[in-house]
Design brief:
The protein contains four helices and seven strands. By secondary structure, it is of the alpha/beta class.
């Protein structure tokens, strides 16, 4: 082997100078991007959005808003024109321009279906709607009903009345076209 060569003082100084870490100028900094602060902000915003978003699942029922003075002609065939008024005492029904009497058997004044045990009787409302629809052959194809409620009536009672008159117990359509009336 060859004898070890000794480095000169200039060579040793150059090696020492090149091996020392040097500070980079701001424009010479490495190509690394520090994204940790950005990820912190994104994570905080995401947590805030997840904590404040409320998810609600709703079912929709097709209804029609009340029509005021539509100027429509009177129907040429007799119609039932069923209207269900939801009042604090029960259900008051109107058909062919007259009130349905209590018990849903005739025309006359009073609440057609009173509350039973302090609850609204949706089964009796359904039975009355079936009875009124079957009262005449002309009413068989009628699909519309108007439901109106006093302002103090809970929303769930109106929905229950809608469900009661839309289909019979066999699942066949009674009055699927529900319109809302204005309580006066």
């Amino acid at each position: 082997m060859a004898a070890e060569e000794k480095l000169s003082a200039a060579q040793r100084s150059k090696i020492r100078r090149l091996s020392q870490p040097r500070e980079l100028a701001p424009d010479e900094e490495g190509g690394e991007l520090n994204i940790v602060p950005f990820l912190d902000i994104v994570t905080n915003v995401l947590m805030f959005v997840l904590a404040t978003v409320t998810v609600t699942f709703t079912a929709t029922i097709d209804t029609f808003p009340p029509r005021a003075g539509s100027g429509a002609r009177a129907p040429t065939t007799p119609t039932l024109g069923l209207t269900v008024l939801v009042v604090p005492d029960g259900f008051s029904l109107k058909a062919r321009g007259g009130n349905v009497a209590p018990g849903c058997s005739d025309t006359g004044p009073g609440i057609a279906i009173p509350r039973k045990d302090n609850d609204y009787d949706y089964d009796a409302l359904k039975a009355c709607a079936i009875k009124l629809k079957g009262a005449a052959v002309e009413f068989k194809d009628e699909m519309g009903v108007t439901i109106s409620g006093n302002p103090s009536i809970p929303y769930q009672v109106i929905i229950g009345a809608m469900d009661a008159v839309r289909k019979n117990d066999a699942g066949e359509d009674l009055f699927p076209e529900v319109s809302f009336g204005i309580a006066r």
